[in-house]
Each structure stands twice: as C-alpha cells, then as structure tokens.
Amino acid sequence: MAKRISAFGEVMMRLQVPGYESLVQAHTLNITFSGTGVNIVSALSKFGHKGYLVSTLPSNPVGEAALAYLRKLGISTDYISRNGKYVGMYFLENGFGARPGRVTYTDRLASSFNTAAADNYNFKEIAGNMDMAHFCGITLAMNDAVRSQMKAFASEMKAAGRTVVFDCNYRPSLWGDKGYTAARPHYEDMLGMADIVMMNEKDAILILGMETEETDRMAQLQHLIPLVAQQYGIRTIAGTHRVVNSDNTHSLLGYIYSEEQFEFSRLLTFSVYDRIGAGDAFASGIIHGEAQGLPAKHTVEFAARAAMLAHTVAGDTPTSTEADILQTMTEIVLDVER
Q1: For residue 192, how far is the Cα from the chain centroid?
Q2: Residue 253 to residues 39, 230, 267: CA-CA distances in angstroms?
Q3: Cβ-based burial of 230 (10 A; exposed 0-12, middle 13-18, buried ≥19)
Q4: Looking at residues 39-57, what average pLDDT do you find?
Q5: What pLDDT score was predicted for residue 333?
Q6: Residue 258, Cβ neighbours under 10 Å: how many?
Q7: Distance between CA atoms of 130 and 120, rounded to whole angstroms?
Q8: Are the CB atoms for 230 and 210 separated by under 8 Å?
Q9: DSSP assignment, residue 18?
Q10: How far is the C-alpha of 312 from the C-alpha of 302, rounded, in Å?
Q11: CB 293 within 8 A of CB 235
C-alpha cells in the first residue's frame, strides 16, 4: 500500500540558537535544513511511502549540503532542480516560560526556489509519476510566480486523477498589509482543487470570510468545517486545537471530518522540547491514514500521536516511525527501552 507522495516547497536553512539563549547572547548556531515539504515527505518516507520533494536549490556548496541532508532524511531528490544562488534561512530562538520562541527570516524571496523560472519544472511528468502531492499555504504566500507554479502543479495532479493535499498554514507576516484580503482568492483556488485539507475554524472565518453565530471554538468548528467541505467539494478536512497550559505543557486535540462525520483524537497533554514542525507531523499522519485507507478514527488518533512525538525531538523534521507512533496508541513508554 506504499504510495508515491511529493511535496512542493522551499528548502530552508535553520540556524538555531543552542539551549535557551537569545540570539544576541549566542556565539554558535546549529545548522539543519527544513521546510514544510521537507518535513512532510520525510515523515511519510518513515511510514513506508516514497517521498519526493519538488523544489530548487542553488548549484553551490550550500545547495550540496542541503541535498545531502535531504537524502539522509530518506527524501528522493529526483525532482529538485539546480538554479539560482541562495537558500532561504531563518534563525530560531527557543522560548522559555513567559518568553515565547521566536523565528526571524532572512530575505527568503531571493532564494533559488522563490526565483525559479515558470518552466523550471515539468509538472505534467511529475504528476504522472505521483499518487499524491502536498501543497502549503506558506509557499502560496511567497510571490505570484510561485503561486502560479503551485496551481499549475495541482491542476496537473487533478487532470491525472491524483490526490491533492492542501495545508492552509496561514502566516500573517508573509501576506503584507492586505493580509486575508490578498490571500483569499488564492486559497479559494487551491481549496477548489484539494481532496484533503488541513485547516480549522479560524481559517474558515479569517481567510474565507465565513460567518457563524457560535462563540465556542468547538461549536464554530462543527458548524463551519462541513460548510467548507460542501462548498469546495473537499473529501477530508483535518486539523488540531492546541492549549498551552500554565505549567508549560501543551494539550492537543486532533479532528478529522470525512464522509460528513467528525472523529476526534484523545486529548493529549505533554511536555514540549521543540514545537516547530509538529503541525507537519500531524498532517503527515492524516496523509498516511488517507493513503492507506484507514478508518478516520484511527487516522486522527495516529496523526495526533505523531504530532505529540514531534514535540519531543529537536529540529523541525519528525523522526518517528509508524511503529513508534502505534506504540504510543497502546502504551506510554517512560523508561529506557532495552
């Protein structure tokens, strides 16, 4: 049942301040490479699928380092082209207590991915070789050229009868002053082509401008998500609700809406080592369940556990195997495995 699954997105260099120092205090930085697409297809490769990244990297030592890192994650680099000069970068500072974590981007719009020419990819060929493709709202925010490429790729996937996955993943800082107004038409285009969508009630209200008289988050979710599915012809919609507790633990509840019915995971409460990338771990769990044709209840529980485990490791990219996640669905392991 293994599937060929691709993700369209940028490879970024992550420069992390060790420990809990601020950037102004630090003298060293830890270097890794990440990105939503990287996280998704790496996780799926650990679940037994064949993961491909569709992207562009510079033809220089930094690009070579990124390629080597991707291969170590089990990602196929067959559809990564080599053009441009730069890799996008971001600096990560870990939060502690009342001080939140902080991400600072460099000029990522000048990266090889975000300056790639319109004919840089053969989307028809790629779509013909894939079962599913993942697209992200962060990538959608980059510029008109990247948006056109994303929509062209998704269109080819639909034409080939393949599955399109879209994660709303709205980032206010990337859309500028016009914010939701600028984003809405592009989100509507992608939702119209999507079979599986990651979103919650806030996305429906703020991005799509949908209205509800409900004031409770769960009631808003249960009112609006079926309307989104019906309006855009979406097969499956999934997402999470998160609460940050006073003791610095997090509580996470996953949901999935499929076949006109909601299913919810157990409410999971856990300590957090590194939060970045946990949403991608949840999405990969949903994609895995859908690809395998698993029951919705099992799929959302698996995805929530994948997200929980992603909070326990350093770095953006999930490291858990399917067996690791299934084990947490039957027992909590606190001692050393021997």
Answers
A1: 19
A2: 21, 23, 5
A3: exposed
A4: 97
A5: 44
A6: 21
A7: 18
A8: no
A9: S
A10: 16
A11: no
Q: What is the DSSP letter of 113?
A: T
pLDDT band at residue 331, thresholds of 50, 70 and 90? low
pLDDT > 50? residue 270: yes
Report the distance separating Cα 309 and Cα 318, nearest Å. 8
Which residues lie across from 254 on neighbouring strands? 240
Cα(273)–Cα(266) distance, rounded to whole angstroms? 21
DSSP letter at 23? T
More confident residue, 131 or 244: 131
- Closest by CA to 165, choosing from 287, 76, 261, is 287
How many other C-beta atoms can be found within 10 angstroms of the C-beta atom of residue 115?
A: 18
The values of phi and psi at residue 174, to 5°, are -90, -15
**C-alpha distance from residue 181 to each of 60, 139, 209, 240, 337 (Å):** 38, 17, 9, 24, 51
Residue 337 has pLDDT above 50, yes or no: no
User: What would the DSSP string read from start to end of 211-244?
Assistant: --S--SHHHHHHHHHHHHHHHHT-SEEEEEEEEE
Distance between CA atoms of residues 174 and 137, nearest Å? 10
Task: Write down the pTM of the prediction.
Answer: 0.92
Better-predicted residue by pLDDT, 188 or 178: 188
Helix (H, G, I), strand (E, B) or coil at 57: strand
Instruction: Give the mean pLDDT of the chain.
Output: 92
pLDDT digits (tens, 9 = 90+) for 187-237: 999 999 999 999 999 999 999 999 999 999 999 999 999 999 999 999 999
The pair of structure tokens assigned to 120 is: 């840089």
162 Cβ contact list (under 8 Å, min separation 6)? 127, 130, 131, 132, 133
pLDDT tens across 26-47, in order? 899 999 999 999 999 999 999 9
**Sequential DSSP letters for 71-105:** HHTT-B-TTEEE-SS--EEEEEE--BTTBPPEEEE
| The token pair that represents 168 in the structure block | 């709303």
